[in-house]
Structures are given as C-alpha cells and as structure tokens.
Amino acid sequence: MICVSIVEPNVAQCIEKTACADMAEIRIDLSKFSETDVQTVFSQAKTPTIATCRPEIVSDTTRVQLLKTAIIHGAAYVDIEIESSQEIKQEIVDCAKHHHCKVIISYHNYNNTPSNKELQNNINQCFAEGAHIAKLATTATSLSDSARILALYAQYKNHNIVALAMGEKGAITRVANIFLGSPFTFAAFDSNSATAPGQLTVEECKKLTSLITERYV
Question: In angstroms, what CA-CA distances link 13 with 31, 46, 160?
Fold first, then answer.
C-alpha cells in the first residue's frame, strides 16, 4: 500500500488529497492545524489516516493534545517518536489502545544509517514500548546502506516494520520495501510537497510498483 504524506494547511483541500492513495499521513505539525482542524480532517478523511506531529514546531503539551484529538476522531494510526519521553509515549499508547488506533513508534536518522545492531536495538525498543509497527527512516550515503535497511525485512519477517532510507541513494527502498513485507510505504502528494529527502511522489510509486508487479511478481 502507498501512504501519501500530506502537508496542506487548507482543511478542505487536505481532506480531498487523502483520496489519492491507499492511506494518508497527515502532518499536523507542518500543516499548522488547530485542534478544531484536526477534528475535521480525521473525522472526514477519505482513506485510513496516520496522525503525525513532530516535536520541532509545537510544544510537547500541544503535540500530545493534537495527537490524542486525532486518535479520538478516527485516526487509524498514530506516530510517536522513539526519542519522546516515556511519559508521552505511554499517554499516546494508552489513548490509542482505548480508541482502537494502532501505534507506530518511529526512529529517524537524518545523518547516516547506523550499524545493523543499532537498527535492531531500535526496532526491538519500538515493540517493547507498545508499537504495532516499528518505523525506521535513516539516511543512505551509499547503496550498501539501502541494502542494510532492506535486509531488516528478512530479519523481522514475523513483525510489522516500515524500514526505508532517505536521500537519493535510498530511493530504491521506498518501492522495494513493499515487496519485502512492509505494510505500506510513504510518498509525497507531488514533487513540491515531499516531507523527507528522496521521497517519491504517489504517481511515481504507483508506476514503479505496477511495473514490477506486472513483470516480475
């Protein structure tokens, strides 16, 4: 499945954009949504949604409230960073459990791709802290970094992980991961709205996955 990452401050347009893929990640932080906006978007979205609100823009108190509002109003998944405090993670996990929302605990590395042992430690921590899905997004400085990320799917074939590498050398992971067991991959709505380095557009992902499926799967 393809999950479109949406940054769109206009509530009506954001809701419409959710229809372009199988799922939609709503970047609450980058869209600068209010609590009322969050209620509207997550209750009216046209596909299953992931609620994401990174800590750089809003305070922890506001972030938790916005994420809990999204959960209550219909988010299928909520994403919380692995580096968040234990108290914040537990509050989000408890709220999600009460409202039948699945938890994604995510690790991001914008500098490099750590050793396989460190990657495994992060995945194990995500699951130990209540994740239904462990998400790892590292930065590929070489194709071997991408290969190491993709190898995680064989190591965790009985677990739900979304592992990908950012940057140009990591682009292959954003399509290959679907065929290796990732429940979904992330794509941008268009070339002007990528939320991570090297992110392909929805249309690019659709074309590549269709081509691979038709010829080789």
Answer: 11, 12, 31
Q: What is the DSSP letter of 101?
A: -
**Domains, in order of start, for the chain:** 2-216 (3.20.20.70)
Query: CA-to-CA distance for 107 and 92, rounded, in angstroms?
Result: 16
> Rounded to whole angstroms, how far apart are CA atoms 119 and 25?
23
Q: Confidence class of residue 217 from pLDDT cuts 50, 70 and 90?
A: low
pTM check: above 0.85:
yes
> Is the CB of residue 148 less than 8 Å from the CB of residue 161?
no
* Cα end-to-end span (Å), the chain: 15
The Cβ of residue 154 has, within 10 Å, a number of other Cβ atoms equal to 9
Query: Whole-angstrom Cα distance, residue 19 to residue 93?
Result: 27
Distance CA 110, CA 47 (A): 29
Is 98 labeled as catalytic in the residue annotation?
Answer: no
- Structure confidence by residue, pLDDT tens digits, 168-202: 999 999 999 999 999 999 999 998 887 887 889 99
73 catalytic residue (yes or no): no
- The span from the CA of 217 to the CA of 202, in Å, is 20
State both tokens at 47. Answer: 């596909």
- 120 burial type by CB count under 10 A (0-12 exposed, 13-18 middle, 19+ buried): middle
Please identify which of the residues 135, 159, 169, 206 carries the catalytic annotation. Answer: 135
Set 108, 117, 157, 207: catalytic member:
108
